[in-house]
Amino acid sequence: MTESIESDRELDTRGLNCPLPILRTKKALNELLSGQVLKVVSTDPGATKDFQAFARQTGHPLLGASEAEGEFTFYLRKK
Asked: How many domains does the chain have?
């Protein structure tokens, strides 16, 4: 499902734990133009809940999320 989502930028937060993936994501989104898509890869087990809450609180739509072999991938569109 999420493999077909094209991203404008990729952010690797593997090995980082909360709140660092969210903080790095926030910084990366600030550098994107409205409508651009950020792909974030994380190994933090709590990342799924964190990114859902982040999307709700900030208004940046979470376009997709997936998990494979302990890695979580999220796609956020800058509002």
From this structure: 1
- Known catalytic residues? 18
Phi, psi of 16 (to 5 degrees): -100, 145
Q: Which residues contact 51 (CB under 8 A, 6 or more apart)?
A: 21, 22, 25, 40, 62, 65, 72, 74, 76
Q: Is the pTM of this model over 0.90?
A: yes
pLDDT band at 33 (very low <50, low <70, confident <90, very high): very high
Give the pLDDT of residue 31.
Answer: 98
Placement of tokens 């072999």 in the chain: 69
Phi, psi values for residue 66, rounded to 5°: -150, 165
C-beta of residue 37 within 8 angstroms of C-beta of residue 55: no
Provide the domain limits for residue 59: 2-77
The CATH number of the domain where 24 resides is what? 3.30.110.40
